[in-house]
Amino acid sequence: MRGAAASPTSCAMRARPPIPLALPSLRLPRWVPGLLRRQPARFPGREARMRLAIALAAENVAHASGGPFGAAVFERASGRLVAVGVNRVEPAGQSHAHAEMLALALAQRALGGWNLAAPGLPALELVSSSEPCAMCFGAIPWSGVAALVCGARAADAEAVGFDEGPKPARWVAALEARGIAVARDVLRAEARAVLAAYAAAHRTIYVPAGRK
Amino acid sequence: MRGAAASPTSCAMRARPPIPLALPSLRLPRWVPGLLRRQPARFPGREARMRLAIALAAENVAHASGGPFGAAVFERASGRLVAVGVNRVEPAGQSHAHAEMLALALAQRALGGWNLAAPGLPALELVSSSEPCAMCFGAIPWSGVAALVCGARAADAEAVGFDEGPKPARWVAALEARGIAVARDVLRAEARAVLAAYAAAHRTIYVPAGRK
Questions:
Q1: Does residue A155 belong to any structural domain of this protein?
Q2: B4 in a domain, yes or no?
Q3: Does any domain span residue A113?
Q4: Is this complex scored with an ipTM above 0.85?
Q5: Which of A151, A181, A198, B146 is the most exposed place for a label (fewest CB within 10 A)?
Q6: Cα(A171)–Cα(A74) distance, integer angstroms
Q7: Does B166 sit within 8 Å of A138, measured CB to CB?
Q8: What is the span of the domain harbouring residue A116?
Q9: Which of A28, A114, A137 lies nearest to residue B22, judging by beta carbons?
Q10: In chain A, what residues touch B83 (CB-CB under 8 Å)?
């Protein structure tokens, strides 16, 4: 078929597969509403918020609905839950569908726009069961959140085979320089246990083969 | 209303606004199919591929359908176009809807999964009208592309007011260390002209206020 530049075959080649014009909607797993119904109206402190992020990660492993990562966005002062996310890379077929990316985009969906620091909105906090990878780290300043709270360390995710990517060595300082507060090691042991459970179940460590 | 923990009002507070369970589908603008119909079946070299990325950026400015950034994914050897993307942050209300993110996710949509380096797929190349921001830089290794080709420099985007984020100083070396080839300054002047046109039209430079 090569070289048939002016034939009808050429048009067929061009059209197959077609250039896609839209992405399928990213959706949270079916078990999420049930988990949310069991939650309190407010999450008063960092540990309560982190417990939800870890529960999301653990349920995602238990239901085989994605990678062992969970995240949630809260109003920083009131503790009201705004949005949640879990890793959906494999079920969605999209390599950027990390827990933090979904939680941030769903918080923007809940609050009406791309800027979570827009006038009139309360300060918001992203709580993640693991420290952000290089991509999610880069996404945080664009989202408008005022703070980041992390459970497991990047080293914990790497210990079970995940790759956290080429993040700057001084990533915490880089966020703080932009006015984003960072807290680490909140319920780290509990968060790390979810990573271990995923590894023990021999689930996919989705890093592109040959590009690591 | 505070403290009415067991009343119906408490439930109403918890439910308003509801926690969203899905993101709206990210879609390319309506003018994209028309632009694609005017394109050749194959893009033989870097400059031809970059011309498409720049045309996407320029049309996105002309149609006021997003920021001044365009990107496309090609089969590296054959030059076949696989997917395109443009910045959709404002119309989509999602801060991560950068041109590169859409192009990569749509390429994954076209080719059937999250890993563009999966066995059986040809090596793929991401061509972007501007160098990637910190987020898109971090997303590139997860996507499975084999190469990145850039038009305008990050400094060109910064010169008109955009913020490229906390990218590692040695970002090119970081990608190359992962087996991802990087080419810069391909049609840089033409790519920079699109950024200037956007700035001249006084369009939004969408960086969260107070978090820069």
A1: yes
A2: no
A3: yes
A4: yes
A5: A181
A6: 22
A7: yes
A8: 43-200
A9: A28
A10: 19-20
Domain count across chain A = 1
Nearest chain B CA: its distance from A22 CA (Å): 4
Mutate to test the interface with B, among A13, A19, A28, A182 (most CBs of B within 10 A): A19
Secondary structure (3-state) at B82 = strand
Asked if the Cβ–Cβ distance from A28 to B14 is below 8 Å, we say no
The dihedral sign for the CA sequence B198, B199, B201, B207:
positive
Instruction: Answer whether residue B207 is part of any domain.
Output: no
- Using a CB-CB cut-off of 8 Å, the residues of chain A touching B206 are 114-115
Give the domain CATH number at A98: 3.40.140.10
Over chain B (212 residues), what is each successive 10-residue block's mean pLDDT? 37 63 96 96 95 98 95 98 97 97 98 95 98 98 98 95 94 98 98 93 62 37
Chain B partners of A139 at a C-beta cutoff of 8 Å?
95-96, 135, 138
First to last CA, chain B: 36
Q: Which residues partner with B158 through β-bridges? A: none
